[in-house]
Specification:
Length: 344
Amino acid sequence: MTAASATTGIVHLADRDPAVSGTDMVASLVPPPQFDGATFESYRADAAYPSQEDAKERLSAFALPSASAPRGGFFRRAKKEPETKPGVYLDGGFGVGKTHLLAAIFHAMPARRKYFGSFIEYTALVGALGYQKTVELFRGSDLLCIDEFELDDPGDTMVMTRLLGELVTSGTRLAATSNTPPNALGEGRFAAQDFLREIQAMSASFETLRIDGTDYRQRAIDGEAKVWTDAAYTEALDEASLRGIASDDAFDGLVSHLARVHPSRYLRLLDGVDAIGLRGVHTLYDQAAALRLVAFVDRAYDAQIPIRATGESLSSVFGDDMLAGGYRKKYLRAVSRLVALTHS
């Protein structure tokens, strides 16, 4: 199903079965609505972390057309310009503004053919169109932005790196952000070298920029996701349904439904929804279910849809064993976004 025709009322996400065509996927390869106006000027660099301002300046230069080298005369030699690599890779913790900077590159680069999507959107497109058709679609494009580059699935990772390798040879410039660090390197860090090993021959195509900092989402709000009583939840959803479309689902029902919907369709699952309601939240211990929830939270955050929930706090939705494992950064980023959405 597509977005509901009604403009107000209550819907159940577990009843939706969205279909997304390859054409729809390509059309959606633009920055999320919250980053429609993202610019380098609007990026709020934290003075306590100079790497943020440094990254902004470097990326501003990357987004500009390549400057022509000054010509040399008979008696002077043209100044040698530093090598400019075709790709930049933003390496940093969650909430330091990597996606904002990625969107700023997209908006600032004067390119006719440019695309912006999450890693999962690109791999889903390969699945829908086939590898060769995807190569033909993007060949000759000016810019490809890949948010949340995944290292979870070796197969998907190698498909994407092979695709990017082919596009670089056709002149496409690349910009990517990281999403999955090895747990051994600690909270909020990504092993750039692990990524470079994965992309093998493409390693020389990327300049890795480290962005340090604290999660901006935690600077102005409480550190816990807000929990509603049953009465307050009902009142909040009733109020939201008078102004727009509110969803109302049992937490277990939504988690089960996400297993039947490909993550590439999660954004379409939320079409037209202005508020998300979840009843009976509890800690998840199944990693596959937890990772699907992370993908869902990412799409809800992209669309900036408030969440109202009962039961346990969404801050504790991922078990301790998960937070100590290899997907730690994913879960912490999702918790950060859940906190923000329950307070919005």
